Amino acid sequence: xxxxxxxxxxxxxxxxxxxxxxxxxxxxxxxxxxxxxxxxxxxxxxxxxxxxxxxxxxxxxxxxxxxxxxxxxxxxxxxxxxxxxxxxxxxxxxxxxxxxxxxxxxxxxxxxxxxxxxxxxxxxxxxxxxxxxxxxxxxxxxxxxxxxxxxxxxxxxxxxxxxxxxxxxxxxxxxxxxxxxxxxxxxxxxxxxxxxxxxxxxxxxxxxxxxxxxxxxxxxxxxxxxxxxxxxxxxxxxxxxxxxxxxxxxxxxxxxxxxxxxxxxxxxxxxxxxxxxxxxxxxxxxxxxxxxxxxxxxxxxxxxxxxxxxxxxxxxxxxxxxxxxxxxxxxxxxxxxxxxxxxxxxxxxxxxxxxxxxxxxxxxxxxxxxxxxxxxxxxxxxxxxxxxxxxxxxxxxxxxxxxxxxxxxxxxxxxxxxxxxxxxxxxxxxxxxxxxxxxxxxxxxxxxxxxxxxxxxxxxxxxxxxxxxxxxxxxxxxxxxxxxxxxxxxxxxxxxxxxxxxxxxxxxxxxxxxxxxxxxxxxxxxxxxxxxxxxxxxxxxxxxxxxxxxxxxxxxxxxxxxxxxx
Length: 566
Fold this sequence. Notes:
The protein has about 575 residues and is mainly α. It has helices spanning about 5-15, 40-50, 55-60, 60-70, 90-115, 120-125, 125-140, 145-165, 170-180, 180-215, 215-225, 230-240, 245-255, 260-265, 270-280, 305-315, 315-340, 345-350, 375-400, 410-430, 430-435, 440-455, 455-465, 470-500, 510-530, 540-545; strands spanning about 20-25, 35, 295-300, 555. It has a two-stranded antiparallel sheet with strand order 1-2. A two-stranded antiparallel sheet has the order 3-4. Keywords: Membrane, Transmembrane, Transmembrane helix. GO terms for molecular function: transmembrane transporter activity. This is Major facilitator superfamily (MFS) profile domain-containing protein.
């Protein structure tokens, strides 16, 4: 007996949900699963994995802003660091660091919502062109520009870059989630996100390598007093920014060859036969779910509407999932982006990564206690590199190993609780730790970075791709992710405001760091309560949680499949 379209739909999705994986050694891109006969699914995961390295473009601004300060800034108490060192004014620094998060928040909602209308595949590539154009544009800004002009143009271009770079968030997560079997979905989506760690590592490693490469030239120029060190540092930041276009160029081809997700094809387009062929290709198997080679079955799907969306999230369970995920992401990004976007400032306070043998022979701005340009750059890049390699990356891979064992909610709850404790200790025992127990402060700071990633930074990325209806999954994911970037903007504005009103450079102490650590502890505590609202999605199919197994009418269209465009 010929199966109904609802039965064929369930059978087709079951083929995806029952795909078999074998755990093997991880690859350089972060994929951790070799699929016995499911090579296409592996390629899909890897395409998403590689492109999440675009975090490099966002996180590298911390050291780039420091370099820009030396070239275009001035020695002033309104700067972002010690007034004996040239730096950008706090307002300019703030503009650079919030431009991208604002762009990402808008991009996430635009690309997420559009992917529910025109398809995941069609949107999965547009953002690449945006990234490439905006990154190249940043590198060719004339060197004769003033600090105000430079930060304005850079801010605009970084806003545009943010539209593309983080438009990738909902697309990579949703595509991987819709292709993944339930029992491996957490690990596959986490593997995609883990490449953010490699982007963070690259954003620390490449500037460190450049500082080392330009060491002799910078020091010689400083000793000679000819001012050429500014030209060297100006070249350095342009190289750092420009390298961000490399992964985008490579990923562009991968984006153009990816297959549309079967869930979009079935539950939004209503085209079961197309999905069956895509699934068969993905599984490298002959078509088993299709009932005919010459007849196309049309599956009647619900229409998308604001009223339908409102009714879905008026259900308490669905609203709790949306609010819990969005607020958890907001709270987490207050901490994550405060630490990453202001890493050089924080590392200066704790002298983390400072070497004993790298000092300039001259001061800057004629101030007696200046550490010097090269010394500060080296300290910042070295500290970033150590933190990325020792804490950020391990946190991602602990999450990958345990996400489908412990579950999303337990890991996120554990992360927020431990982060609350860690930031409370660092914030309220700040002066004692900094002056009398610096190694313990560094240890606590490192553990905070670790448990962000072995905790809510990974879990929010996964959960947001699992709880909504297919026809709204991209949009709801974009809303949740944009909430996180709103947290990043709030964090940076708060940090800059506190920085302006609270400075004390005695013993390298910046009071703003202490106050922001205390505020972060409050947000981490709020994340504990928002996590309690979340469902556990481990091991469930996307349809099982969303309730997207409604019966629809069958419509048999006598259309030769070969005459239909894919």
